[in-house]
């Protein structure tokens, strides 16, 4: 089953979509990768959903990627005497470590590490920014604030502190337990929440130890300040627009989305755009026109994958949401201006043999009107280079590594086939032509541009380009 589009779709599984029939429908409708959100559900739930995906993979005969999304540290208020209070703009409000329930003058904030980095003038946002405080005085166990934007707050509402690097690891005790479980389960990607520094990614990578790829979620302004370093240490990045839109002015997010997509493409790392893409489809069978335009914009930006969250996890129309996203992506990619944008923004190849071969493959495929570019890869690096070029033909990835095939399900324009390694050039050409025909990528008389590394089976040795005709 080959998609007739290049940008991929990630569908989050949850109460509305955990059954085998629904998972199968999501896949058949267009989902390429499934996300397990460890902010919700028990390990037994995730184990069952993972098993369902792997059973489907065997039936479909196509590698399917699985992302585990770690919750990360969540800053939350304690409780209030009456469960909730209303704060008035201009009033004084204290946050402290005292365990007693709060009222309209104070509230418990059980995160002592936060107080040390707050300063007068620092903004504190409550409940996704619905209430805004400004710090007037700071101590080691409390802060006094002025209410800038009033409103109602209640027990355990979330806290955001924009513009401050918090002394917190992105991996809580819960996350570490979840990570160990997910890696033993066999997930393909680990989505890392609350990334603020490159060191956060390095910490996670040491724990993962190559057993999965790292997808860094960019949701903190501090991460944007060190964007290139974080991308370099990550295997992919996500534009987590929900939290970015809370911690930064909403008008800044569209430009940041474009900047992150460009930076990821330049580095050859997949970029996922996420959050509220078809949010109205949680309750309605069709999206708003603005949401359709939002999805289209991410595709025009060149994103590798677009993610559905609540739409498929808890919405009333999970399959319809995937179908709608599939149609929008396909329509955009048929627009002549889309191809013009992709062609206008090719990153400069690095001064390496592998990059030279990959750039040449795109030019050769266009010149000879090839049906596809075929990449032989073990680690996936050859295929990611080909995807970075955004060629005007599909990228057929042949790999002996099932783990690599599953991870590359996230990459733009890549159709993966798990196959045995080849021993010589003649076998390489024969297998590329045969599989391209079997997968519906090419037919008799079509040409293929094939890239590989010699000696075969050696990662990181892309040094061979061959043009072959099917039926020659």
Structure description:
- The protein is an alpha/beta fold.
- It folds into three domains: 8-72 and 170-337, Phosphoenolpyruvate-binding domains (TIM Barrel); 84-160, M1 Pyruvate Kinase, Domain 3; 353-469, Pyruvate kinase, C-terminal domain (Pyruvate Kinase, Chain: A, domain 1).
- It is 37% helix and 23% strand.
- It has an eight-stranded parallel β-barrel with strand order 1-2-3-12-13-14-15-16, surrounded by seven helices.
- Helix 16 links the parallel strand 18 and strand 19 (414-418).
- The model has no long low-confidence stretch (mean pLDDT 94).
| Known CATH architecture of the largest domain | Alpha-Beta Barrel
Q: Output the CATH class name of the largest domain.
A: Alpha Beta
Class from helix and strand fractions: alpha/beta
Quaternary class = single chain
What's the number of extended β-strand segments? 21
Widest sheet: strand ordering:
1-2-3-12-13-14-15-16
**CATH T-level fold name of the largest domain:** TIM Barrel
Instruction: List the total number of helices.
Output: 17
Could you list the spans in which at least 5 consecutive residues all have pLDDT below 50?
none
Percentage of residues in DSSP E strands: 15-25%
Report the CATH superfamily of the largest domain.
Phosphoenolpyruvate-binding domains
């Amino acid at each position: 089953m080959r998609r007739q589009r290049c940008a991929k779709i990630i569908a989050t599984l949850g109460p509305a979509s955990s059954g085998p029939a629904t998972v199968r429908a999501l896949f058949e409708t267009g989902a390429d990768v499934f996300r397990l959100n460890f902010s919700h559900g028990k390990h037994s739930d995730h184990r069952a959903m993972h098993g369902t995906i792997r059973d489907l993979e065997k039936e479909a005969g196509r590698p399917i990627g699985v992302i585990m999304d770690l919750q990360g540290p969540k800053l939350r208020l304690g409780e209030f005497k009456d469960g909730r209070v209303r704060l008035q703009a201009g009033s004084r409000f204290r946050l402290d470590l005292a365990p007693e329930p709060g009222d309209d003058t104070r509230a418990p904030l059980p995160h002592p590490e936060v107080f040390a980095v707050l300063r007068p003038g620092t903004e504190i946002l409550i409940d996704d920014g619905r209430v805004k405080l400004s710090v007037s005085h700071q101590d080691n166990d409390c802060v006094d604030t002025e209410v800038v934007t009033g409103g109602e707050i209640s027990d355990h509402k979330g806290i955001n502190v924009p513009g401050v690097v918090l002394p917190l690891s992105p991996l809580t005790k819960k996350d570490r337990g979840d990570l160990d479980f997910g890696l033993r389960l066999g997930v393909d990607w680990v989505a890392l929440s609350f990334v603020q520094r490159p060191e956060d990614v390095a910490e996670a990578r040491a724990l993962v130890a190559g057993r999965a790829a790292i997808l860094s979620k960019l949701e903190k302004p501090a991460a944007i300040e060190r964007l290139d370093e974080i991308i370099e240490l990550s295997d992919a990045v996500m534009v987590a627009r929900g939290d970015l839109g809370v911690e930064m002015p909403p008008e800044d997010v569209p430009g940041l989305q474009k900047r992150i997509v460009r930076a990821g493409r330049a580095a050859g790392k997949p970029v996922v755009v996420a959050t509220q893409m078809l949010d109205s489809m949680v309750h309605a069978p069709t999206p708003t026109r603005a949401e359709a335009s939002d999805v289209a914009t991410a595709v025009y930006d060149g994103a590798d994958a677009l993610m559905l969250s609540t739409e498929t996890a808890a919405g009333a129309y999970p399959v319809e949401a995937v179908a709608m996203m599939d149609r929008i992506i396909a329509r955009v990619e048929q627009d002549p201006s889309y191809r013009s944008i992709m062609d206008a923004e090719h990153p400069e190849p690095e001064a390496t043999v592998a990059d030279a071969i990959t750039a040449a493959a795109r030019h050769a495929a266009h010149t000879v009107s090839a049906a596809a570019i075929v990449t032989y890869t073990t680690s996936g690096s050859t295929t990611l280079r080909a995807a970075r070029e955004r060629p005007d033909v599909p990228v057929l990835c042949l790999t002996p590594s099932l783990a690599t095939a599953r991870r590359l399900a996230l990459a733009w324009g890549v159709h993966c086939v798990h196959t045995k390694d080849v021993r010589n050039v003649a076998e390489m050409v024969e297998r590329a032509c045969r599989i391209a025909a079997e997968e519906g990528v090419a037919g008799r008389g079509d040409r293929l541009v094939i890239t590989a590394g010699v000696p075969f089976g050696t990662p990181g040795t892309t040094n061979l380009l061959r043009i072959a005709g099917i039926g020659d």
